[in-house]
Each structure stands twice: as structure tokens, then as C-alpha cells.
Write a structure and sequence with these properties.
Beta-Lactamase, Arc Repressor Mutant, subunit A, 2 domains
Length: 294
């Protein structure tokens, strides 16, 4: 995988007024195709591309799709994203670089990454997310927005089209600050409450019981997300019985016996934190998301 650093101060890329209007209109839109469509429209004149998918990567959870679109509709982007999120994101060199400890990308930093189908070493990942869907190559705008959170914008070119040229890559590097800024604002708007919910749960779980192991926290966070034991086992590459053991140990440490009681414990912890500090718009939104999820 190739990478290029992005220097916003050195960017001289020009964005058409119609593209700016579409990008601004897509921020915080509840239409799950809007932002990806706007980004495709923005890059089309400089580097013709067929599909776009935008992901949020948060702590040790599975990434989630924020927006997907394509020239003929969003289905190829969604199919690729589904396979990626379910089985293959850990094999992605970009994900490995971003999740490295110490961090491979500093908070606030933006980079452009390039991954060609033929360069992917994991055969199952290559087949499911590229070859089977007719995707030849991917350029990614990657930005770290918090210590354990980052956002990725994948722009795909299909088989039969030429590889992205050096000039096209340079064009995306120039456009990256605009793309990154719009995606970061969209993510911060938290239109479905999911970001606030995940951030609150992640913090509260750790504060409820600092003695939880990393694996126990991973299992608990997925249980709170509504993921089944079998699916957690697939995601973490463990046996279902091993996941059940981690769940049992974590429940014992927390003094709970079910997912419902776990939610109640998190809600109590969150309510206590709110009572001990001035309420903010952020915490209020996260608390509302928790109440809905329970």
C-alpha cells in the first residue's frame, strides 16, 4: 500500500461551486447516499471514479458504513462494505496502519492511501471486496479524528479502467482537506445518535470496572451493540464458547447477569457522571441515545 501525506496549507485544488453546494448540503443529511454521492461528484472531473464508501472506525469495534454511492446506484459500494465489515476489514492494510499502537497517524492528520487489487496479500479479502465486485483499485482519504477514532473515504475504480495516474493521485491529495473536513463535520453531527452512544458506552464500561481485560471490554461493547455470541466469535476469531466465557467473567466483575442489567449499569454510570458535571449538548445527546438503545 502506498501513502501520501496531506498538507492543507499547501493545497491549491479548485472545487466547483456546484460541488461545494452539494457537499455542504450532504453534511448531516439522513440520506445515506448523499455524502458519498457528493464526493464522487467533486472528484469526477479530476479522477473519474465509479464508487465511493465512507466508514467510521471507533475504538476496538467493527467499523460502520456512514455513506455509500456509485454511478449506477449504491449497491456495489454497499455489497463491498458489507463483506468488508463482516469478515475482512482486519486484513485491510489501511486499517492496520491506522490502528497501530503507537498510532501510525496522528490526531488531526490526513493521508491518502492507494491499494490495488493485485497488491492485496489476503486472498479472501481480495476476492470478496475487489475481484467479485469488479473493483480494480481504491484510493482512500484517511483521517484520525480522535485518539481511538478515524474516518476513511474509499474511492473505487472498476476493472477495465486504467489505474489511477500520478496526476490523479496528486489531485486527490489536493482535494483531501475539503473531503476530510466535510466528512468530519458529518460524523460530528451524529445524525442517528450512534457516535454519541458508542463513545459514551466505551468510556462508561472502562470506568465501571477498570479490571476488565481488553477482550472482556471488546465482548461487552459488542453485546451492547446487539451482536450475537456467534457473530462476536466470528469477528474476534474465537470459539463461541470462549466468547461466552469472556461474557460470564465480565458480567461477574460488573455484578450483572444479563444484557438488560448491563445497560442499566451503564445508564446509572452515565446519569451519575451527568449529575457531577455541568450538562453539555454532547452528553445530553449521548444520554438520549443510550435511553433509546435500552
Amino acid at each position: 500500500m502506498q501513502t501520501w501525506p496531506v498538507n492543507p496549507a499547501a493545497s491549491s485544488a479548485c472545487v466547483q461551486a456546484s460541488s461545494v453546494a452539494q457537499l455542504v448540503g450532504a453534511i448531516a443529511s439522513q440520506d445515506r447516499t448523499a455524502l458519498a454521492s457528493a464526493i464522487l461528484h467533486t472528484v469526477q472531473s479530476a479522477l473519474p471514479s465509479q464508487h465511493c464508501a465512507i466508514f467510521a472506525h471507533e475504538a476496538s469495534r467493527n467499523p460502520r458504513l456512514l455513506s455509500g454511492a456509485g454511478e449506477g446506484g449504491p449497491w456495489v459500494a454497499i455489497k463491498s462494505a458489507t463483506a468488508y465489515l463482516r469478515d475482512h476489514y482486519r486484513a485491510d492494510a489501511m486499517h492496520q496502519m491506522a490502528s497501530r499502537r503507537p498510532a501510525g497517524i496522528a490526531k488531526g492528520e490526513v493521508v491518502v492511501c492507494r491499494e490495488r487489487c493485485e497488491d492485496i496479500e489476503a486472498p479472501e479479502y481480495r476476492e470478496a471486496c475487489f475481484t467479485a465486485l469488479g473493483i480494480r483499485e481504491r484510493l482512500t482519504v484517511l483521517m484520525r479524528c480522535a485518539t481511538d477514532s478515524w474516518l476513511s473515504v474509499h474511492i473505487y475504480r472498476i476493472a477495465g479502467q486504467p489505474s489511477f495516474s500520478a496526476q490523479e493521485v496528486d489531485s486527490l491529495v489536493g482535494l483531501a482537506p475539503v473531503i476530510a473536513g466535510c466528512v468530519a463535520r458529518h460524523y460530528a453531527s451524529d445524525i442517528d445518535g450512534e457516535t454519541g452512544f458508542r463513545d459514551t458506552v466505551t468510556g462508561d464500561i472502562g470506568e465501571l470496572c477498570p479490571s476488565l481485560t481488553e477482550r472482556e471490554r471488546e465482548v461487552l461493547m459488542r453485546i451492547l451493540d446487539g451482536v450475537t455470541v456467534n457473530r462476536i466469535a466470528e469477528d474476534l476469531k474465537l470459539r463461541p464458547t470462549t466468547v461466552a466465557t469472556y461474557r460470564m467473567r465480565a458480567y461477574e466483575k460488573l455484578g450483572v447477569a444479563s444484557r438488560r442489567e448491563l445497560f442499566a449499569a451503564v445508564l446509572r454510570r452515565h446519569a451519575l457522571a451527568q449529575s457531577q458535571a455541568p450538562a453539555t449538548q454532547e452528553s445530553g445527546r449521548a444520554g438520549t441515545a443510550l435511553l433509546h438503545a435500552a
